């Protein structure tokens, strides 16, 4: 009797083992960008911006209600810490939204696909064709370089990747040219044409006050003195003639 019982329990145990192995695991929950970043760590500031601008909700809704892929460049907390103090507070709420969306490409790019990507990449911040939000990528071997026109950085790690979402770590905040670029410099003014040297001849109208009267007085004095000398000579001649006559 013991042998049949042993066989019975052995068969029961085997059936339970097979059943446990064939049951599929519970499906994972919907993709949540915040949970992805929380699990990775060191992305607290970026998560706060995603929540404050409500971009996180839009990402989650898009991932779970459409087949459109997304690529996200996630700056680390250290990347935000290296920004100049007050950088984020110096821009408006709308510009903060543009900044967050600038880190999101509405297309799924694997690391290898960056090698054939056409620049500039279109981000959710707007069309790159108008020159406001250009984002360019270049590759060198397995390294992916990201250029905004303000900063240059590289993809340092793949945080998450599936058939719809790719999240890459970058060690600098991607600052768009439209928000943080230097204002265009004005063209240098043309140098003025060299002026002709002035002659050291002072016009009569430029003479100092009182000089005209002084000149007039001097001329008059010369003229008077001239007539005085001539008169004295005439008187002397006449006197000499009269004396000559008297001697005769």
From TrEMBL:
Classification via Gene3D superfamilies: FAS1 domain
Residue ranges annotated for the FAS1 domain, each copy included: 30-174
Keywords: Cell membrane, Glycoprotein, GPI-anchor, Lipoprotein, Membrane, Proteoglycan, Signal
Major localisation: membrane
GO cellular component: plasma membrane; side of membrane
Topological category with respect to the lipid bilayer: Lipid-anchor; GPI-anchor
Any GO BP: plant-type secondary cell wall biogenesis
Region (Disordered): 186-220
Low complexity bias locations: 203-220
InterPro entries: FAS1_dom_sf, FAS1_domain, FLA_A
Signal peptide span: 1-20
Pfam families per UniProt: Fasciclin
Location in or out of the cell: Cell membrane
PANTHER family registered for this protein in UniProt: FASCICLIN-LIKE ARABINOGALACTAN PROTEIN, FASCICLIN-LIKE ARABINOGALACTAN PROTEIN 11
Protein role: May be a cell surface adhesion protein.
Family designation: Belongs to the fasciclin-like AGP family.
Name of the protein in its database record: FAS1 domain-containing protein
Taxonomic lineage: Eukaryota, Viridiplantae, Streptophyta, Embryophyta, Tracheophyta
């Amino acid at each position: 009797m013991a042998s049949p019982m042993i066989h019975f329990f052995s068969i029961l145990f085997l059936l339970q083992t097979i059943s446990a192995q064939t049951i599929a695991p519970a499906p994972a929950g919907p993709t949540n960008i915040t949970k992805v970043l929380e699990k990775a760590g060191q992305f607290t500031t970026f998560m706060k911006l995603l929540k404050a601008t409500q971009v996180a909700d839009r990402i989650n809704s898009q991932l779970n209600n459409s087949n459109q892929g997304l690529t996200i460049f996630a700056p680390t907390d250290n990347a935000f810490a290296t920004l100049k103090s007050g950088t984020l507070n110096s821009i408006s709420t709308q510009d903060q939204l543009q900044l967050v969306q600038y880190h999101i490409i509405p297309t799924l790019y694997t690391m290898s696909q960056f090698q054939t990507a056409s620049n500039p990449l279109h981000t959710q911040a707007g069309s790159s064709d108008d020159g406001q939000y250009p984002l360019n990528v270049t590759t060198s071997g397995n390294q992916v370089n990201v250029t905004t026109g303000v900063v240059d950085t590289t993809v340092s790690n793949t945080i998450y990747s599936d058939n719809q979402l790719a999240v890459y770590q970058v060690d600098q905040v991607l600052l768009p040219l439209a928000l943080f670029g230097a204002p265009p410099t004005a063209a240098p003014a043309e140098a003025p044409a060299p002026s002709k040297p002035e002659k050291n001849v002072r016009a009569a109208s430029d003479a100092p006050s009182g000089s005209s009267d002084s000149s007039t007085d001097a001329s008059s004095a010369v003229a008077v003195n001239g007539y005085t000398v001539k008169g004295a000579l005439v008187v002397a001649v006449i006197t000499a003639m009269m004396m000559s006559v008297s001697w005769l």
